[in-house]
Each structure stands twice: as structure tokens, then as C-alpha cells.
Amino acid sequence: MAVHLFHRALEASWLVPGDGSRVGRLTEQGRDAFRRHLGLADEALTTG
Questions:
Q1: Which residues touch 24 (CB under 8 Å, ≥6 apart)?
Q2: DSSP 3-state assignment of 34?
Q3: What distance in Å separates the CA atoms of residue 45 and residue 41, rounded to the nearest whole number?
Q4: Diameter of the chain by CA atoms?
Q5: pLDDT tens digits for 1-48?
Q6: Residue 7 falls in which region: left (phi positive, over 0), alpha (psi -120 to 50) or beta
Q7: Taking a C-beta distance cutoff of 8 angstroms, is the pair 27, 15 a contact?
Q8: Every domain of the chain and the residues it spans
Q9: What span, in angstroms and rounded, lies between the C-alpha atoms of 32 and 26?
């Protein structure tokens, strides 16, 4: 399931690939979508 969610997020431009790594970056559109569709809080959508 995680693989499908990852690919869907890339297709929808919710995630963009990182430069030269496997790390992706969540876009503002993606942040809004994960909040709206999955009910995730801002704290769950940030790294640090």
C-alpha cells in the first residue's frame, strides 16, 4: 500500500524527488492534500 501511495503522491505532484537521493520533498499542495485526505497534523508533515 505504501508504494501505491508514494507513486500517487508523485503523480499528483504532492511529492517531488530530491536531488541525487531517495528523499522526496513534500510540496505545499501535498501538505494540504495529506491534511485533508488523511487528517495529518502539521507536526506529522514536517521533518526536523
A1: 6, 9, 10, 15, 16, 17, 18
A2: helix
A3: 7
A4: 31
A5: 888 988 899 999 999 987 777 778 889 999 999 999 889 888 888 865
A6: alpha
A7: yes
A8: 23-48
A9: 10
How many residues can be counted in the chain? 48
Q: CA-to-CA distance for 26 and 31, rounded, in angstroms?
A: 6
Q: Where are the beta strands (DSSP E) in the chain?
A: 15-17, 24-26
Helix, strand and coil content of the chain, in percent to the nearest 5, comes to: 50, 10, 35
Residues facing 17 on adjacent strands: 24
Of 4, 11, 34, residue with least CA distance to 46:
34
Report residue 29 as a C-alpha cell.
499542495
